[in-house]
Amino acid sequence: ISNYAMTSDPYPVRAGDSLRYWIWFDTESNYDATVAEVSENGLEWFQLHDRYTGNSGGWVRRAFSLAPWIGSSVFIRFRYMTDDNTLRAGVYVDDVWPAPAFAQRLVLSDAITDTLYEVSDLEVGTYWFRGRGRNAAWGWNNQGPLKEVVVTGVGVAERPGADRLRTGLTAGRNPSAGPIELGYTLARTGNAVLAVTDASGRKVRTLVSGRTGQGRHSVRWDGRDDAGRRLPAGVYFCRLDADESAGVRVVLLD
Question: Quick check: 134 pLDDT over 60?
């Protein structure tokens, strides 16, 4: 049985943001487990930490950096996996931050048939837009990522970096106890940085830094930090930042 509680709206991640919460759990050790996860599209979910199982011994505060998703919007959920073999008290989560909340939601149109849709008569301020697609067979799809737009009174200014291209960042043999092969694509030659951070957001390894050519590239991470020390098992984030593209991939070291 897998149950989860999920935010109804995505959260636009900014620099310095982290997922913070208190958790209390009493579950069957190694059989029942709870994880906190984030997703940009509601389909692909990334686990932020090793699973919680057994007994927490009271309320415990946890915090995990959202740095890999800066400039993107993410859904947040807590997922509890259990069975009916051994029954315990369960899992409780409280004081979760961030908790996305918008002052007002307005459907601009549910019948857009063109690639261009104009919005007018908005007051000065900051707005967030997102779109959905629909077909007769499957109905409405999951809502897309948020797009921040600032209305200044004399025009519209989009936040810089909000529409950078995806890089097709991939990770082979994941989870892995050995080297992990990372692949990525650059649309054009430019500066690129591929770095690995731990679950707290601390950078532990820089794999690529400097001018990189157009096309597909690959690099191997041996599970060690910049000083050559073997890193402990757990969740790590591989993030690529280039001039006009960005990508993130979650990897698990066994």
Answer: yes
First-to-last CA distance in the chain?
Answer: 25
Task: Please indicate whether residue 151 or residue 80 has the higher confidence score (pLDDT).
Answer: 80
Whether the ω angle into residue 232 lies within 30 degrees of 0, i.e. cis, is no
CATH number at residue 218: 2.60.40.4070
CB count in 10 Å sphere of residue 7: 17
Residues 147, 238: Cα–Cα separation, whole Å: 24
Tell whether 156 and 170 lie within a shared domain: no
Q: Which domain holds residue 129?
A: 102-162
pLDDT at 177: 75
97, 126, 153 - which closes a domain: 97
CB 231 within 8 A of CB 250: no
User: Is pLDDT above 90 for 56?
Assistant: yes
* 45 lies in the same domain as 71: yes
Instruction: DSSP letter for 55, please.
Output: B
Q: Which two tokens stand for residue 40?
A: 């940009």
| Domain boundary, last residue among 70, 97, 124 | 97
Both 88 and 118 in one domain: the answer is no
In this prediction the pTM is 0.52
Using alpha carbons, list the distances in angstroms from residue 223 to 14, 44, 68: 28, 24, 18
Assign residue 164 a region (left: φ > 0; alpha: ψ between -120 and 50; beta: otherwise). beta
